[in-house]
Amino acid sequence: MAVIVVSLATSLTAVVVRSSFSSSPSLFLTKLKSAPCLRFTFSVSPFDSYRRRGVKLMAHSARATLGLTQPANIDVPKIAFSAKEIDVAEWKGDILAVGVTEKDMAMDDSKKFDNSLLKKLDAKLGGQLSEASSEEDFTGKPGQSLVLRLPGLGSKRIGLIGLGQSATNTYNFRNFGEAIAAAAKTAQASDVGIVFASTGSISNESKLNTASAIVSGTVLGTYEDNRYKSDSKKPVLKSVDILGLGTGPELAKKLKYAEDVSSAVIFGKELVNSPANVLTPAVLAEEASKIASTYSDVLSATILSAEQCIELKMGSYLGVAAASENPPHFIHLCYKPSSGPVKAKLALVGKGLTFDSGGYNIKTGPGCSIEFMKFDMGGSAAVLGAAKAIGQVKPRGVEVHFIVAACENMISGTGMRPGDIVTASNGKTIEVNNTDAEGRLTLADALVYACNQGVEKIIDLATLTGACVVALGPSIAGVFTPSDELANEVFTAAEASGEKLWRMPLEESYWESMKSGVADMVNTGARQGGAITAALFLKQFVDEKVQWMHIDMAGPVSSEKKRTATGFGILTLVEWVQQHSS
């Protein structure tokens, strides 16, 4: 098998590999076994249509995108974070942001704060802080903020940011950072100091994680994806001082780690936000190759063309791709530490549908969300975002494979039809009873490929089913795995990252609805339990010796309120890989 290895300062090139088949493969690589008195021959390749249309496989032309749209270059916010131990009343800057719980806002009979820090700041401000918070009915509830310009402190303004009844986890502290970013935007502040009204109950280890979460929230809250807007404002925030959580090299290292991972989350958000007329499978492959080029000391890229995927007998993946004018690109990045032994081999597999029309089972009617189907590559964005972060933080002792079967699910005369039978690369046959259940078809071959890399554990992420959104809502991803060990690892990582997961059952009896009369299986089962049967389908393509988890992130891939991508999954994946680092 010929491959393309992309390293520093190289670009993708056209590679044509002739199929090793003695005759042209059938559509989606499905063959009939011989039977008495029956003889069939096939001479149609789904990729003959590419050649007829003059499309060069793996060739990246400079032709204009549909609509002539090109994203502007928007830099990731460059904010200088530092940890300091100084008198907060003397801190100089634009806003001193104080994180307060509802308990911190308690007042005595004379309407003065009970909390010692708030009492001290209020005294410096002549009692105006307690008076204003009472008048504005600020009680410290989550989402509340009060920013005042008052003389008496080293800072120009003081801000109270509500933490709710208590702030005890990464999710709360990241939201706190986002609230600070919002307050800084409104006030056009460039320098912000952050302090908690109460820190006595926070352990030293918790202080590290708290500071990290604040950095992550502040960076992500400051960034706005304005690449496709004709006019955009640059963020004003330049520096953030974290006060009262300690100092030293360990904390500084944690802040740097949070900045690196946050930049990877922004990269993932940009991928998902990019429209399908800009982010084609070829462009997604280019972005993956850029990551490998940037961190070429630890990352390499292999991009397989359609022809090479035919040689690997990826009929399930190629069946989905066959209708599109944009050829598929199978992406494989590999992280290997620059020195030391490798003690764990992991794989991250992401669904990479850069657009999903539904195929012949086209998405129609209210609620079909076809206009949001650029989000259908959210799994691949999580995987590639994780690759970027891993390339930056360079964990030791762990090898990681990042795998994406990128393509579009479109409609044309060369496309997959309902009732077709496709053959995956592990030899299993699938009767396609719904072309809009395409993501699992691409993941099938990606999972087989991942197992062939000799990995011990695999996590796949996909915007796979609406059923999971119905079950868990828009902010929680569903987790399916037969491995309790892997479940414990990933939930520990998710808790540290502040992302919400919920374990779902793999009810084997539901597989009955996935049986076909003419093939090994169908690609969709009964309407009830649709997220479970989708996970059971994927399980058919994973080696029994490999620990495997499927994460259905159809809900949290985007924010309905903000109408943009969230970058979901990247933080958890990086934490999980870090767990396996020596």
Automatic annotation (TrEMBL):
<dbReference type="GO" id="GO:0006508">
    <property type="term" value="P:proteolysis"/>
</dbReference>
<protein>
    <submittedName>
        <fullName>Leucine aminopeptidase 1</fullName>
    </submittedName>
</protein>
<keyword id="KW-0031">Aminopeptidase</keyword>
<keyword id="KW-0479">Metal-binding</keyword>
<comment type="similarity">
    <text>Belongs to the peptidase M17 family.</text>
</comment>
<dbReference type="InterPro" id="IPR000819">
    <property type="entry name" value="Peptidase_M17_C"/>
</dbReference>
<comment type="subunit">
    <text>Homohexamer (dimer of homotrimers).</text>
</comment>
<keyword id="KW-0732">Signal</keyword>
<dbReference type="InterPro" id="IPR043472">
    <property type="entry name" value="Macro_dom-like"/>
</dbReference>
<keyword id="KW-0645">Protease</keyword>
<keyword id="KW-0378">Hydrolase</keyword>
<dbReference type="GO" id="GO:0070006">
    <property type="term" value="F:metalloaminopeptidase activity"/>
</dbReference>
<feature type="domain" description="Cytosol aminopeptidase">
    <location>
        <begin position="434"/>
        <end position="441"/>
    </location>
</feature>
<dbReference type="InterPro" id="IPR023042">
    <property type="entry name" value="Peptidase_M17_leu_NH2_pept"/>
</dbReference>
<dbReference type="InterPro" id="IPR011356">
    <property type="entry name" value="Leucine_aapep/pepB"/>
</dbReference>
<dbReference type="InterPro" id="IPR008283">
    <property type="entry name" value="Peptidase_M17_N"/>
</dbReference>
<dbReference type="Pfam" id="PF00883">
    <property type="entry name" value="Peptidase_M17"/>
</dbReference>
<dbReference type="GO" id="GO:0030145">
    <property type="term" value="F:manganese ion binding"/>
</dbReference>
<dbReference type="Pfam" id="PF02789">
    <property type="entry name" value="Peptidase_M17_N"/>
</dbReference>
<feature type="signal peptide">
    <location>
        <begin position="1"/>
        <end position="19"/>
    </location>
</feature>
<dbReference type="GO" id="GO:0005737">
    <property type="term" value="C:cytoplasm"/>
</dbReference>
